[in-house]
Amino acid sequence: MNMYDYLIVGAGLFGSTVSHILTQHGKRCLVIDKRPHIGGNIYTESINDINVHKYGAHIFHTNDKHVWEYVNSFVEFNRYTNSPVANYKGKLYNLPFNMNTFYQMWGITTPEEAMRKIEQQRKEAGIVDPQNLEEQAISLIGRDIYYTLIKEYTEKQWGRKATELPAFIIKRLPVRFTFDNNYFNDTYQGVPIGGYTKLIKEMLKGIEVQLNTDYFSDRKYFDSTAEKVVYTGEIDKFFNYCYGHLEYRTVSFETEVLKGTENYQGNAVVNYTDAETLYTRIIEHKHFEFGTQPDTVISKEYSKEWKPGDEPYYPVNDDRNCALYKLYKKLADEQSKVIFGGRLAEYKYYDMHQVIASALNLTKTI
Ligand code: FAD
Ligand code: UDP
After folding, report:
1. Is 101 found in the same domain as 153?
2. Is residue 120 a part of any domain in this protein?
3. Alpha helices in the chain (DSSP H)
4. Which of 147, 176, 276, 312 has the most CB atoms around it within 10 Å of its CB?
């Protein structure tokens, strides 16, 4: 007889949501994670009393009231609104692209002037049907902003020419003709007071969790523990890379405690959009929770090409990888015991609210 109804591989947001709902419905769950902590990529760790986003800046945002109420049922969220600042060779610009940015770039003060300027640059570039990120960006906000705030940052972040990247990546960012620095358009936004680890801890309350436990260290044994498996790891690894490796972009962080510095950069996120600065951005973690501690903690984020063995961060949704994923997905659909979900198992550029929505959907079908 199985000891559990469900074995959940991965204590990230997807695995935690699924196991929370299943447990509420009387199912016996075991959650395992190969890392020494819960939370997957949203894990926060307290350093000098500051919640440090160990795997990169995380801001929760959604239009889905149900998802917002779901996360707020575990922990209170603050009113943090993401408004990154871009630093290009020492000059600062507001993001996303809005009237403040247009004023800083061109000295213009009205939406009409801004629209005229962008239209003129778009016409000069002669792009009718944008085929890649560069063309898409120039037709959205013109050449000056593209060359100052987008091209070099994007090429640093993705390690590829902007002309070789899909247009959809840049469409994630709003373009506004109002003085509004909110990076997102969603109705609900914030950061859990006390950090994301607190959120996950609450979700996993009363559920058996084994850390430092890799599913692949004894796959047969783990499969035998439960009737069903929910797998949130890399899909290609599950099938022994039988069709080859899916690719990712990876990031690394240089984290420093600045003793005696109360406020290093005045904002949680500052992007460095020039090519000479090797990091893409600096995160000052205390600002996510309006911290007033006497010290501060900053992380410089570097973007790197992924190689097998590195931590996978961003799926590279280009044609080659999408085709490869389809082959793995077909194998996954043939599995009767194992359900695949989350950023790695679905090879999707999911934000947190989308991960939760997908996990809630899955539990409905279960
Ligand atoms: P993960 O968090 O990756 O969890 C998967 C877990 O499975 C991991 O803990 C892993 O250790 C475990 N695992 C894998 N294989 C095994 C195995 N063999 N055995 C045991 N355990 C295993 N989203 C937002 O909404 N807002 C943001 O601002 C935002 N910023 C981001 C910034 C960065 C740099 C990145 C990379 C992502 C960001 N995201 C953001 C997205 C967010 O991190 C993800 O949507 C979310 O963390 C995905 O959760 P998950 O459970 O699917 O995956
Ligand atoms: N981007 C840019 N300059 C910036 C911020 C973003 O060119 O200062 C581009 C970059 O190509 C990035 C895309 O916009 O990949 C989407 O930005 P977002 O902040 O959503 O990226 P994330 O790091 O969250 O994936």
Report:
1. yes
2. yes
3. 13-24, 65-72, 99-106, 111-125, 133-145, 151-158, 196-203, 219-225, 235-238, 319-333, 352-365
4. 312
Ligand closest to the CA atom of residue 97: 2
Choose, from 152, 281, 325, 347, the residue flagged as catalytic.
281
The count of domains in the chain is 2
202 is catalytic: no
Other Cβ atoms closer than 10 A to 239: 14
Q: Are strands 4-9 and 226-231 parallel, antiparallel or unpaired?
A: parallel
Containing structural domain, residue 123? 96-170
Q: Which residues line ligand 1 (CB under 6 A)?
A: 9-15, 32-35, 40-42, 55-60, 214-216, 232-233, 251, 313-314, 342-344, 350-353, 355
pLDDT value of residue 308: 85
User: 55 catalytic, yes or no?
Assistant: no
Q: Each residue of 26-45: pLDDT tens digit? A: 999 999 999 999 999 999 99
Is the same domain home to 151 and 209?
Answer: no
Query: Atom 27, ligand 1: which residue's CA is nearest?
Result: 58
In a domain, 179, yes or no: no
- Pocket lining: 153 vs ligand 2, CB cutoff 6 Å: yes
| Residues facing residue 284 across a β-bridge | 298
Shared domain for 26 and 165, answered yes or no, is: no
Same domain membership, residue 147 and residue 102: yes
pTM score > 0.90 for this model?
yes
The tokens for 343 are 């950023």
Beta strand extents in 267-325 (DSSP E only): 269-272, 281-284, 296-305, 314-315
pLDDT along the chain (366 residues), means of 10: 92 98 98 98 98 97 98 98 98 98 98 97 93 95 97 94 91 94 97 98 98 98 97 98 94 97 98 98 98 98 90 86 97 97 95 98 94
